[in-house]
Amino acid sequence: MKFFLPLLLLGVGVHGAPTASAPATITKEAELTTLTLKPEAEERLRLKTVVVGRRAVPVTRLFAGEVVWSLGDEAGRVAPVLGGTLDEVLRLADQQAVADGRVRQAQLQVDAAMIAFERAKKVLSAEAGSVRSVDEAKALLAQAEAALATAKAQRDILGAPVAREGGTRRAWVRAAIYSGELGALDAAAMAGVRTLAADAVSKSAAPVRGPQTANAATATVDWYYEMPAGMAARAGERVAVEILLRDSASEHLVVPFNAVLHDIHGGQWVYEAIAPHTYTRRRVQVSRLAGSDAVLASGPAVGSKVVTDGSAELFGTEFMTGK
Question: Is the pTM of this model over 0.70?
Fold first, then answer.
């Protein structure tokens, strides 16, 4: 019986059901990464290609930001910025209440000194007083007015009242910048601000002149930006801030990110169309992302055509993992 087994197996191989022709031919001798598709297979895959270009793509650096309320006015005078902690709000409210009390007290002293000065002048005009009394009353009035001006200046430094709603409040974004990176960043350029939501989109934010604050413990300097219009965020909320680098004028290779494939070892590849129905897999190195584009440190030459839609299907066809 054992002599018939090879014949039976051979019969299955010869007389079995005919196998369907492969939709693609893989060249494995000279170029291991080149695929030649049949026209009907290429049509089924609905492949789309784009041309590799070289252009200047903004280079940004990502920093952590915090939404704060600026209590200053449009004149840009020094004023506090509030985060989201209740202790911070209560402490500033207490300082403002004390400063308001000093202003009222100084105003009362000015009013009393004014009354005394007017009385001394009337007494002098009735020839019942002395010039010295008038001078002394005038000096006391000047001292009271100086004390009132000082109290008002101290109160102005504390900004708009926080104990009640309304008033002058502007939403800012405070970004903590590492001191070693200050020279590489463009302080005058617009920044991109977005929330930490997964589907958040960056919005442009203009730099503003905020208080010159820094943190010596973390070696960071604070930069401030206007809250983008239409962006809802509350004080103390964390956001992401993308700040432009100074060397953003340099050009780089750019392809859509959906054209880049990753293998199990972390290698990055694209499929380049080198001839009709023929595609070759080329290694690329992605340096960073710019929106939906991938900025390449190395890759195909400018003008090459790479596959976007259908690149994953080509990858499965090459390694026999597709359906």
Answer: no
